[in-house]
Design goal:
mainly alpha, four-stranded mixed β-sheet, 63% helix, Hypothetical protein af1432, 703 residues, 5% strand
């Protein structure tokens, strides 16, 4: 029944993973543009490699982005902001002036007489002063009163504004309108110039204080300004010139230069739009389905043949698919809304993050497949794929040790440099000179580099969410001050020395055959932490008295076997990641506690021992690293029992121990070859010879 349940669970997992790939394919198809794909590839500055191209239909020539930008900048530079005239302000302020004029006139007359004792004040002076004042106020309000800061912000000195008066627009120079301060100066200047010989009259008008009745009657009309401005920008023509159907566009071997490149781009745009809206849309959709299915199919087959353990875990498969979709969705959103360049998206983060949990080959392959899919969405597909290929390769080559803090900064710097160099190279090929390069793209690359620096926190987040194990965490676990290792060193010092030696042997061996050396070392350090439960029962911790002498062989075997189970419990207590716990479970595999098993069999001839009481619970090693640990653990422990250390005795010991494990079928589930095992043996022999080499006996000093 248990076998049936395991088989059903495995089949269910495979079905779920297959559905996951189909779901990802559906998302990819949805993200594809509804346009067709132009069937010719070309680059500016290179010869046309296809047959002569004849225009299949009439189409307009689109302006370049640079031309449209220049026209847009010109429109915005010459644009005049709109101000709305409020007539009621003038009416209100003039009425207020009329109401207080009598009182202000009396006070002003007194001041004027003090300044000019000869100033005459006939009865007609009051009405004349009032008339002059009203004329000045009316003139000021007719020209308009604005807020100085508002005008300064919206215009430049010497430019014009547009005044809306009852929906009638009138252009007016900025220097013609007034602020309250300018109005004050204008009144004094006008009166002084009209009555140069009458200081009294000038003083009279000045002390009536007309500026108290000057208020802003021109307000900036943001809504109208924005609408008119947007209309002007929208009305900039995007096309110039026409190509007639049947007209030759370019011939084979012709160099793709500025003019014919613009024509080709115009044809491509119209061709893809027409294809996306024609009766051929069904075939277009079918082609997109096939492309996406092929690319995800290639990814699936790669995992199936080279990383089958990923396809056996829904969690691992989900992580891979999720990373691919994040990049695809980001690219699709940027292309669709066209607010920022696609080069700001940190595509190199994909191989960096996957490399943190897996190997370089898998990270780079997934990066390539993802870039291929996004290439169908991105403008200038060849340029995009080339740049991302270079950046991805640089990220893989430079980021070999992510656990070093400065390594990511160095890698990001080199990725940024590779982007800039590769883009410059292509741009020079296309434009023919360096001065025509679009330098704004380098700013997008800089933003890309800043976003790449978020890989560290993202790796930590994915590690916790998906239960992965990164080099950073492994480095933390390798610290012998970790509580689990400190506990081992205090309670079982002999075992602690044993695991140090095993770690040295295993790490050297895994480097030789290819594997995760840091994982190997950490797994070796923790594989025997369970011995702290009963340290005295293990010979490396004994000092004369052996507690097994008081126990039966079955009970002794039970105590020995228990260190595996106790180790798993301690791993949970110290929150040791699952991949490290695997080393604890598998370092004895399903083998026997041979010493007590053999003792029991020799003393009970004719009686078969209950093999289950002398067998470790397993499972057997299922990775290259756990297999190497089993070999290193057994060889290191047995090497301590040798009576004589020489090349022959060490060679015999290593061969015997590992060959017995092979005969016991302990490595059948692990991805390790006989060639690997042979290399591991050689490493062990060399290391043990170095450890136990003969030392010089120092002579004693004679008296």
């Amino acid at each position: 029944m248990s076998t049936f349940n395991d088989s059903f669970a495995n089949k269910s997992t495979k079905i779920y993973i297959l559905l996951l790939f189909l779901f990802a394919s559906a998302i990819g198809i949805y993200l594809f543009p509804t346009q067709g794909k132009f069937k010719f590839e070309y680059q500016k500055g290179t010869p046309w490699q296809h047959e002569d191209l004849i225009a299949p239909f009439d189409f307009a020539i689109y302006k370049t982005d640079a031309e449209i930008k220049t026209e847009r900048d010109s429109v915005l530079r010459n644009f005049k902001p709109y101000f709305k005239l409020n007539k009621s302000i003038a009416e209100t302020e003039i009425t207020n002036f009329t109401n207080v004029f009598e009182l202000r006139y009396k006070d002003a007359i007194q001041v004027a007489k003090k300044i000019d004792p000869n100033f005459h004040t006939p009865d007609s002076l009051k009405e004349f002063s009032k008339s002059i004042s009203l004329d000045l106020l009316s003139f000021i309000y007719e020209k308009g009163v604005v807020d100085f800061n508002e005008v300064l912000e919206k215009t430049k000195k010497g430019t014009s504004i547009v005044i809306l008066n009852n929906n009638i627009a009138e252009n007016r120079d900025v220097e013609e309108v007034f602020t309250q301060k300018i109005a004050y100066g204008f009144v004094n200047k006008r009166i002084t110039s009209q009555f140069p010989n009458s200081k009294g009259f000038v003083a009279l008008i000045e002390n009536i204080k007309l500026y108290d009745f000057v208020s802003q009657n021109l307000k900036y009309d943001n809504e109208t300004t924005q609408k008119v401005q947007q209309d002007l920008v929208n009305n900039i023509p995007t096309k110039k010139g026409m190509i007639q159907a049947g007209e030759r566009i370019i011939s084979r071997g012709d160099l793709v230069q500025d003019e014919n490149f613009r024509v080709l781009e115009s044809l491509r745009k119209d061709y893809e739009n027409i294809l996306g809206t024609s009766s051929q849309i069904q075939w277009l959709f079918l082609g997109q389905i096939l492309v996406i299915l092929m690319l995800f199919g290639v990814l699936y087959l790669f995992l199936y043949h080279f990383r089958p353990e990923i396809l056996e875990s829904f969690r691992k498969s989900l992580f891979i698919i999720m990373m691919v979709l994040i990049m695809m969705v980001s690219a699709a959103l940027v292309v669709r809304f066209n607010n920022v360049s696609i080069y700001v998206i940190p595509f190199a983060a994909l191989p960096i993050i996957i490399r943190a949990f897996y190997d370089s080959r898998l990270a780079f392959f997934i990066h390539l497949v993802t870039v291929m899919m996004i290439g169908f969405l991105a403008p200038n597909s060849f340029e995009f794929i080339f740049l991302q290929f270079v950046a991805g390769a640089v990220s893989i080559f430079t980021l070999t040790q992510l656990h070093r803090r400065g390594q990511l900064f160095l890698s990001v710097s080199l990725i940024l440099l590779s982007y800039c160099v590769a883009y410059t190279a292509i741009a020079i090929m296309q434009e023919g000179e360096i001065s025509k390069i679009n330098y704004e793209t380098f700013l997008w690359f800089a933003g890309n580099g800043l976003l790449l620096l978020t890989c560290y926190p993202l790796i930590f987040m994915f590690e916790k969410v998906f239960g992965f194990l990164s080099d950073v965490t492994l480095l933390e676990l390798s610290d012998t001050n970790h509580p689990a290792l400190r506990n081992l060193a205090e309670k079982a010092p002999g075992t602690f020395q044993h695991v140090i030696q095993v770690a040295n042997l295993a790490e050297e061996a895994i480097r030789k055959i290819g594997g995760n050396a840091l994982l190997m070392r950490v797994g070796a350090l923790y594989h025997d932490i369970g011995k702290t439960g009963a340290p005295a029962f293990f010979i490396e911790n004994q000092s004369g008295q052996n507690p097994h002498n008081k126990l039966s062989y079955e009970k002794s075997a039970e105590v020995i076997i228990q260190h595996v189970l106790h180790g798993v419990e301690l791993a949970k207590k110290y929150k040791i990641p699952a991949p490290i716990t695997d080393f604890i479970l598998t370092h004895h595999g399903t083998g026997l506690v041979k010493y007590f098993y053999t003792k029991y069999a020799n003393e009970n001839e004719g009686k078969l021992p209950d093999i289950s009481k002398f067998s470790y619970p397993g499972p057997a090693p299922f990775t290259k690293e756990t297999a190497v640990l089993m070999m290193a653990d057994a060889v290191e422990a047995s090497s301590r029992t040798l009576k004589e250390y020489n090349e022959n005795s060490i060679d015999t010991l290593v061969e015997k121990i590992i060959n017995n494990q092979i005969e016991d079928s302990q490595f059948e589930e692990a991805d390790i070859t006989f060639k690997d095992i042979h290399m591991v043996k050689q490493v062990f022999k060399e290391k043990l010879m170095n450890i136990y080499h003969a030392r010089i006996e120092y002579p004693e000093k004679k008296n």
